[in-house]
Amino acid sequence: MTQNSSYIPASDVLGVSLVGGEGTRLGPLTWYRTKGAVMAGPSILSAFSTSNAFNSGIEKIIMAVQYLPYSLEYFYSQVHNEDFGHRKKISVLNPFHFQNLRSGFKGTADAFFYALQRADKSSQAYPQEYVLGLSGDHIYRCDFTELFNIFNQKYGDNSLVVFTQEVRRETASEFGILTTEPNSTRVTSFKEKPKQHELPEGQENFKASLGIYFASRALWRDALNIDQERGKSELSRFDIGGNVIPYLVENQSRFQVHTFNLKEQWADVGKPRAYFDTMVNMFLERNPDLFGDPKWKIEALGTPVWNSSGQERYVCCLEHTTIRKSNLNNVVCSPGMVISNSTASNSIFLGGSEDEKTHINGSHLENVIIDKECNISPKSVVLSKNGLVMIAKETHIPSGTIIEAKGMAVVASITEMEHNLNNLKTFVQKQKEEGEEVELFTPEGILISMEEIMAKSEDKEIN
Length: 463
Description:
Elements: E1 13-18, E2 39-40, E3 43-44, H1 46-55, E4 60-64, H2 70-80, E5 90-93, H3 108-121, E6 130-135, E7 138-140, H4 145-154, E8 159-168, E9 176-180, E10 187-192, E11 205-216, H5 217-232, H6 240-250, E12 254-259, E13 266-268, H7 272-285, E14 305-309, E15 312-316, E16 321-324, E17 327-333, E18 337-340, E19 343-349, E20 358-361, E21 364-366, E22 368-370, E23 375-376, E24 381-384, E25 389-391, E26 396-397, E27 402-405, E28 408-411, H8 414-419, H9 421-433, E29 438-441, E30 447-448, H10 450-462
Parallel strand pairs: 1-4, 1-6, 4-5, 8-12, 15-17, 16-18, 17-19, 18-20, 19-21, 19-22, 20-23, 21-24, 22-25, 23-26, 24-27, 25-28, 28-29
Antiparallel strand pairs: 2-3, 6-11, 7-13, 8-11, 9-10, 9-11, 14-15, 29-30
């Protein structure tokens, strides 16, 4: 029991990581995997959350995943080996583990509820009295023991604490926005992703929720049980930010903020440009150098190696990468690459899957993100003048193909575009709302419209 202690031992904290999102804003990178499984150099996005937890002394994490979990499960099984699995150091939970959840988790609060149910049923394996809720698709570094050491004294067991950071008005609509009492940590209002016109006039900076929550297990259980009951009456849509937190605030519960250490890195990489820029900052600028501290290890499939000489600057994993007679400048390579007789600049290569590698041979690439298991044949040119070209997984670009995009572009076979039509439509629409038109190319370099893709899909349904 730890309630009377001045601090909370990290061993008495269970981590629950939510990694179930479709991540439609990342377009083709999430056609084949949950957002948290998107590669980040030799690692994946969700590994930053779990690594921070383990580095802070937390001993067990339950990951609730709903959407295409295989890549995520494969990564953690490779990294943790015998410590991965049910009741182990890290355990992946999906809706199919429950007979009544064949249609999936209803929302983040529902996923959290069932993660705690699993922990309660296995109380000997999960005896922890506190629970740290982690958002599994952000990149950051944080020592959670700073909160554990002050929690009882500053907040107390009847409080749920959210990590916050100030954001500018122009990005506030992407976060849950909080207001606190003057000179206090107590939250008086919360709005999930407010529209710009809903923000107070004349205010430029706002407290934003980072999707990281901490409370006693008993408080979590009570709050989530209430949300389950409210959901039965259609008073809740089972969302932590949209329903659980507003309910706590409205009912005068002790919902408080813990300011994230601004000296540390935190990045939301939910959009292609944000993802690209963060990869460049982290791996090439090494600002911050999240992989450079041997005392704060990030879970990864290999060790990043930095190369910088003359006109070349790139990072790769030597044990999983082959580079021959090529010039790479501002390039981040994940494990599983074979690059020969090529030039590439300002690009991210997501590597291979298990035994299947990405091959780039005799090609020129510029401002490109290439997903796994692709084949770029000789004399091909793929570039964007003012954006990013995103090449979908398992795309084969024939010899001599030239793709010159004006801005943001997606390259995939028509079959894959049709198969992932809903995701593609959402991605294109969201980009358009932000003033970015998306061009669609076949692997042969043929420009095709969304209307043509939809018409082909409808024809197949009719036939």
